[in-house]
Structure formats: C-alpha cells, structure tokens
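Notes, Module 5: Reading structure tokens.

Key idea: the token line is not a picture. It is a compressed description, and you learn to read it the same way you learned to read a sequence, by spotting repeated patterns. We will look at two proteins. The first is printed below with its tokens.
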Amino acid sequence: MGTTFFLSPLSGLLTAFLGLRATALLGGSIATAGLLLSSFVVNEVNALYFTYGLMYGLGASLAYTPSLAILGHYFKKYLGLVNGIVTIGSSVFTVIMPSLLEYIIKYHGLEWMFRVLAFFTVGIMLCSLLFKPTPLMIIQTPSHKHESVKSLLKTIVTVQIWKNSKYRLWALSMPVALFGYFVPYVHIKKFIEETFTDVNDNLPLQCLAITSGLGRLTFGFLADKRGINRILLQQISF
C-alpha cells in the first residue's frame, strides 16, 4: 500500500512521457506478474517483499494515476460525479473481498488467493486498451551539456505551479492529513480479533467501505453544482 502511493510521482512522470494508455498497460502487466510470482513463493517472506510489496505496489501505482486522469478526457460537465462512480469501485470490492479471500485461503491456500487476485488484475490491462490515446510529451535535447540536467528537470517538473502559495500549502498539508488514512484498513481487523470474541471481524472494515462509497458519490455529485466550493468540501471531510 505504501509503495503504491509513494511511487505516484513516478506514475505521473511516465504518464507524461508514455501516455495514459501505455502507462496503465505497463502498470497492469507488472501488477499481474507480481501477483503470479507471489503465488509461487508464499513461504518465502523475503521474496514476497519484492514480488508483492514492490512489483505489485509499483504496478498498482502506474495504473492508478492514468485510471483517474483519463476521466477528464471523456467527461467535463459531470466530472465530480464520474470520479465518485469510478472510485466507489474500491468501496464495493472492500465490502466483498475480505470474505472471498478468507474463503479462498481457508479452502485453497494462499497461493490460489494470489492467482485469483492476478486474474482480477488482468482487467486493468484490458481496460487500459480502451483508453483514448493522448499526445506524448516531446523532450527536446539540450544544446549544451552543462544545461542538460537543468533543461530536463524544467521539462519534467512544472515549476510555475509551485510559485502559487495556496498550492504549496495544499501539497504539503495533504500528505500530513492522510498520514493515518490507511491505519484502520490495515490494523482494525487484527484489533477486533484480539479484543472481541465471536464477532464478525470483517464488519468494521466493510462499514468503512460502505460509508466511504456513499461519501464519494455524495461529494462527487455536490462538486458538480454551481456555487459549491470544492476546497471547502475537502476541508469538511477532513
């Protein structure tokens, strides 16, 4: 999970160089390969660090950014609602997957759980083929060697936007605000198992997913309305 979001800047750069379709296809391929390889090394945690932690994390990161960026190419008027509908998929599967994965692990083993996940992840590659092609970024070769690094950085990184004080504040405060976002998703099930007996330990996670999905749809719908301050909506959420 950490790898997926830590490598988001890399995903953004590759999207600029390769385009949305190619980046998503590459990400889906790496993620699928990582899950398949993980199914053969379920008893080797050091190998899983690489195949699941790094390979799948990298692949998911490369696929995540294009899957949201592509929406702006198809939708303008109802972009907020469309974002809500697209991202609600994560909520739906968070409700379904815990019970499904537990069943697979119990009756078929961890290796088959990874293979089932790999089967789902193939869908990323198939969906990416439907993306509308986007123009590639043209990188001009610097005329002098001593200017090569500086020119390349200017081409890759948009410096102008960092001169906006409000953007700097937002970009620096968001990671701090999201610091504990995944803690419940990772640890709440174990906490329930250790604290309570004879209860559904998946239920709190599923409730999180349901309310998250409702919030995405509601705020996506509101964000498209005239006179609505979208920044204020985000502030209310936090």
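Here is the second protein, with the sequence above and the tokens below, as before.
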Amino acid sequence: MCIIIITNLSAIQTLMLNECASTTDLQLPNLKVITKSIIPELNGKGKGEAGKVGIIGGSVEYTGAPYFAAISALRVGADLVYVITTENAAPIIKSYSPDLIVYPFLNAHSASKLNFILSKMDVVVIGPGLGRDDDIIKLTHEIIQTCQTLKKPLVIDADGLYAVWKNISILKDYPSPGAILTPNHKEATRLIQAVPSKSGAWYDYWGKYVSVLSKGEQDRYHSSIVPFRWTSSDGGSGRRAGGQGDILSGSLATFFNWALKSYICENEQSAQFAQSVAAYAAAKLTRSCNSKAYETYGRSMIASDMLKEIHRAFEDEFE
C-alpha cells in the first residue's frame, strides 16, 4: 500500500475509499490523514452537533476517573458531556468542573431516567471509576443491554471490562455501530481467559462490530476486519500515570462519534473503519499528551498534567 501526501478533499476521499477496499493493514500516516478529515468544522454548528457523550461511572471511592474521561471528551471537542454516577459521587464530581452535566442516577431506582439520558447520547462510555460492587455490576449489565437495544456506540474501559469479564457473552453480537473495548495488559489477559477456547481469535468472539484496543508500551488494535488492524508505539513515555486510560476513553468517545458521522467507507464496513480511525486518534492523542507532560514534569507527572496538554497535542497531531 502506498503512503501519499494529501493536499485536497477529493484526494482524502480517494484515500479513504482505497483504505476501505484494501486487503493489507492500515498505514499509520494514512490513519493520521483520515483522522484530520473527520474533525468537524466549528463554523455554522449548533450546540450538540459536535457530540453528546455519556460517561457511566464513578463511585464513593473513585470520583477522579469519570471526571478525567468526561473532561477529556469535552476538551477534545464534544459539545456536551454527561456523567451518570452514584448519588454520593455526584456532588464531588460536580465540584471538579462546572462544565460537566452530572446526574446521580446510577442506581436501580432511576432506570427510567437513566434510559432516557442514554437515548440522547451519541456515544456512551462505561467503566471509569465504576467499582465492582455486585449491585453495580448487575446494573452495568442492564445498561449494556439497554445500549444494545438502542444500538448505541459504546466504549468500555476499566471496571466496565470487569463487568464484561463477569458475563463474557453480554456483548455477543453487539449491533452496528458497535463497541470498542480498551483493556490494559492485565484486563486483556482476564478477557482472553474468559473467552471460550474454541472461539478462534479472542477478540472476534463478540462479533464483527466489537473491536479491541489493547493498551500498553505498544498499542494494538484488533478488528474483525484484518486490514483495519494496526499497531503503534509512537509517543508516550515511561511514566504511566493513573487516570491516563480514562483520558483515552473519553477522547475515544468524541473521535468515535466524529468518525461515525463522517461515513468514512460509505459501505457495510463503515462502522468498523470508524472504530479503527477513532481508536488510532485517541491513542495517538493520549500518547502525545503523555510525552508533552513528561517533558515538563518528568517522574512527577500526573494525569491532571496531561489534561493541560490536550489542546497543544491536538493541534500538533491533527491540525
């Protein structure tokens, strides 16, 4: 596959069509060009058109994780971000930022309110700071089933992946536009062990619209469509701050929505290609934020320092 320099819109469209029809793996330079093409213009847009993202997570122990995911989705470019969390976590998360819309509806008694909010979202992220209480895991399964009925694009991370591990078939045959799982090495190992051994490649178990971004020193993207897979280790640092995965999941939600609305392939593989492009963009941005923050803070770098770099990293990588 050739790598070319893109200078106009029609050339970008040609590149995207070529990648959709390709039988070899995506090239990272081409993925970067395609990412630039999905970013919406700011002029002439109404509030909400650049994305409404829902973050399902948070608990009395973990209030930072849903904040990091939500504020990252917002800073990357989503217009509205909603955090659906527990009653005791809601006021704490609200105190972190007035820019987030926070609902205390993560409980079995608020199912109708929760389902109504989910119906309005462009993309839903499940997992940051969710916790592993039995009641929460049960509720998480119900939320996944609701999203499946609504055909909502999903990003599942952290304790959301634990919930999937507890009921490994919960995502089986999830419909288009699909779900993206974002496990680290430990989480991926747990999922691999839970997938039935006769299922072929473990990441194909859930069907053609569920993909996996395995995070680590080298990020690996697994898709049911072989040419849409990629591997990248560009950027980042040796410092792995807690909360970095939440930054990635929130960023991914915004990019996922943009990619889906760009109708990249204009065929039956459009959703899977959108997943691949969005996963690349989020991983690339997160690694860039990490390396930039590390340049300033070194070993003392924390996730909050990475948030400060989102604007600069976005401009350097995609504008």
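Summary for the second protein:
- Residues 105 and 112 are 9 Å apart (CA to CA).
- Residues 1-7 have pLDDT under 50 and may be disordered.
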